[in-house]
Predict the 3D structure of the following.
Amino acid sequence: MNTLLEWAVVALLVIGVLFALIGSWGLAKFGDFFKRLHGPSKATTLGVGCVLLASMLWLAGQGRASGHELLITLFLFLTAPVSAHLLVKAAMKLTPGSRPPPPP
Amino acid sequence: MIDTVLPWVTGGFALALLLNVWRLLRGPGMADRVLALDTLYINALALLVCLGMWWRTTVYFEVALLIGLLGFVGTVVLSKFILRGDIIE
């Protein structure tokens, strides 16, 4: 296996797990639901995307290239904003005073 | 090289799962718990992909795809239930 490709896979894996850990730590640490949403919806999605890209590169380095992981990555990147939007709408219904006043 | 990194990466995702489970058990509101479940399935998907790289098997890709699809459906259904009090109107 190519050494440069292996280093790229390792770097993507480490970056991915760091972003996923930062997102989960933010989910556990922040004090409000609307602050807490930032970690999972952005950092964790990017981390999982990096890991799936690393898996795809690794399989391509072994001569077994396939588009499965690209499918999962595309689906996650499409669905993460939708689920975050729905969660914000649900949380705004649960806490009625959280909607900011409309701009004049 | 990659076989020395993969156990650490898997352990990192396991730690992320533990943090999510803590928020799932602790979370003060319903929306916090749904958000913790959403993050939990995404991290479990990444953990399965890492295990598939570690054990040199491709079975886990289909499992990860299924978890991605059904987890999104679960999050949407739970949010709709909180919003409307019903799922299919």
